[in-house]
Amino acid sequence: MAGAxxxxxxxxxxxxxxxxxxxxxxxxxxxxxxxxxxxxxxxTMPAVARAAGVSLPTVYLYFRSKPALVSSLAERxxxxxxxxxxxxxxxxxxxxxxxxxxxxxxxxxxxxxxVVEVLRTGAGADPALAREWRRWRDxxxxxxxxxxxxxxxxxxxxxxxDIDAATDVLYTIGGPETFRQLVHDRGWTVRRYExxxxxxxxxxxx
Length: 206
Prior knowledge:
The chain is mainly alpha-helical. It is built from eleven helices and no strands. Helix 7 (94-122) crosses helix 11 (190-205). The longest helix is centred in the middle third of the chain and has 29 residues, at 94-122.
């Protein structure tokens, strides 16, 4: 029994957990690179394994499927501490709140371009991706509504703009489609997009 307890302590050692975390991160970064280069459909788990420098069984040990990889990539982005909507909600100045929100959305879109493209293009053919795409949009809607409610409580919304209308505006101008159109289609810099987003929110809502 003593030997079994020692083995358990070793299994949960900080060093082993750190190695596991590094391996998991390496696989996620490799998957993102493969998805960016090939697209979701042509990407394969063996290709991810080769890019990560690990065996195929190791990839499946951490991620059971390609949709699981995409889901984890999405969670990696949305779980970032500096993208927590609470940061914007803590600001009491409405203009600063919109500026902070615009900066966070710029960072979100920069970090999630590959994930969003996979979800957007693959949702129609893969039920797992469709569910993840709905979760992604629901998170965006929840954040937009939280900011709209905050602006309303501060009395910052102009006459005729209720919470639902403000939510729709923030959801639309801050969505990935608008980012893609302005930055990729029209060639804007991400800094120009960020400034525009804050200014558009002010003009349309306050």
